[in-house]
Amino acid sequence: MSISVRNQLLLGLSKSDRALLWPRLEPTTLDRGAQIEDANTPIRFVYFPDDSVISVVARSTYDQIETALIGREGMSGTAVVLGNHRSPYDAFALLPGSAHRISAKNLRSVLDARRSLRQRFQRFAQVLTVQISQTAFANGTARIEERLARWLLMVQDRQDDNEIRLTHQAIAAMLGVRRSGVTDALHALEGRGLLHASRGLVTVVNRRGLIGLARKIYGVPEAEHRRLIE
C-alpha cells in the first residue's frame, strides 16, 4: 500500500483490518468534477479521499444543493456500508487530488468477513448523517454569511491549504444560492478581515474569525467525528 495514504478511516484501522482491506484498494487521482456516484445507479466503487474533496448533491431539474462534504476524514459509498447498493444523490470531486478506491463488491466481501471494519465504517455513516442534518439546520436558520463561513471551514478542514480554488458560481451551486449572493457574502467577510477573495480563489486569513461567525452551525459533526472515529 502506498505510503501516501492520508485518509483517517484507513490510517486508523487495526493491523489485522489493514491486512484484509488494503490489498484490495487501488490508488487513483480524482480530477475536478469527476463523477463518483450517479443518483439511483448502482455504486461501482467506494472512494477514500486523501487530499481530494467529494461533494454529495441533491438535484432536481433546475436546482441543486450540496448535502455533504467528504474528504480525508471519511469515505463515499456509505449506502454500501449500510447494506444498500445505490443512493438517490449524485457525488462528484469538488476539489481534485488523490484517493484510494475499492470496488463495491470487494467492500461487501470484507465487511461480511470482518465485523470491526463494518462497525468502523458504520460509525462514519453516523457522522455523515449528523453532517447532513446540521447542513439542513444551517440552510434553514443561518444567514448566507454564516453558511459561507461554515462551508469554507469544512473545505479547509479537508485540506492542508488556506487557498480554496473555486469560483463564486461553484460555491453558489453548493450553497444553493445565487452567485451574486455569494459574491456579496465574500465581500462582507473580506471586509471583516476573514478572507481574501479573487477570481477563482478564496484565501482564508482568519480561521478563528470564521469559526466565531459560524459558531452556531459549525462543529457538531466535527465533534461527532472526534467521538466516533479519531
From TrEMBL:
Protein's GO biological process: regulation of DNA-templated transcription
Keywords linked to the UniProt accession: DNA-binding, Transcription, Transcription regulation
SMART domains for this protein: HTH_CRP
Entry protein name: HTH crp-type domain-containing protein
Entries under PROSITE patterns matching the protein: HTH_CRP_2
UniProt organism field: Candidatus Viadribacter manganicus
Pfam entry (one): HTH_Crp_2
Any one GO molecular function term: DNA binding
Top-rank taxon: Bacteria
Keyword Lyase among record annotations: no
InterPro entries: cNMP-bd_dom_sf, HTH_CRP, RmlC-like_jellyroll, WH-like_DNA-bd_sf, WH_DNA-bd_sf
Domain HTH crp-type: 142-208
